[in-house]
Design a protein that fits this description.
The structure is a single chain. This protein has 161 residues and is α+β, with helices and mostly antiparallel strands. It has 5 helices and 6 strands. It has a 6-stranded antiparallel β-sheet with strand order 1-2-4-5-6-3. Strand 5 and strand 6 form a beta hairpin. The longest helix is centred in the middle third of the chain and has 17 residues. It is globular.
């Protein structure tokens, strides 16, 4: 099942490899303005997985030099929202229902978020006009460790006419 977003992504995947991340990031940051303020960069998008990065730059640093907690949360929300949005039909609206974040330790350097959806989750979205599901995301920092654990529960409902 294709929606407008997944059609756009498939067209971008036909562009030269060196342009794909730039085009996807520009489109996403234009659409989701707040994500653009943090500097979230899209590395990979498929129906089952997204990979995003966030550099530890001056604009997203906290008082101890790590990525600010809220910037890391935006990264997690963006990663899960993109993979979820790839699968929600155009006649439905994707909504973040809840997010739970446990900060385990100080974040070291830049962050990478990997969000995944299973085929069973995708089939559930295709077969129902509304529902909700947990989209797992793993955030790692430059040390290779997971400084935060996140749970993002997404829902979809039919658009009101």
């Amino acid at each position: 099942m294709a929606n407008k977003f997944s059609v756009f992504v498939s067209k971008v995947h036909k562009a030269p490899l060196f342009m794909q991340s730039f085009l996807l990031t520009r489109f996403f940051n234009f659409t989701v303005k707040f994500a653009g303020t943090t500097g979230v960069k899209i590395e990979k998008v498929t129906h089952q997985q997204t990979v995003l990065t966030l550099k530890n730059t001056k604009t997203v640093r906290n008082h101890i030099g790590g990525v600010h907690a809220i910037a890391a949360a935006v990264l997690a929300e963006s990663a899960t929202g993109i993979v979820f949005g790839m699968n929600v039909p155009d006649h439905c609206v994707p909504l973040l229902k809840s997010m739970t974040i446990h900060y385990q330790r100080r974040m070291v350097g830049s962050l990478t978020a990997v969000a995944n959806m299973t085929l069973a989750q995708i089939e559930s979205i295709e077969q129902q006009d509304k529902g909700e599901l947990m989209v797992p995301v793993t955030i790692t920092d430059e040390s290779g460790q997971q400084p935060i654990e996140c749970e993002m529960q997404w829902a979809w409902v039919s658009k009101k006419r």
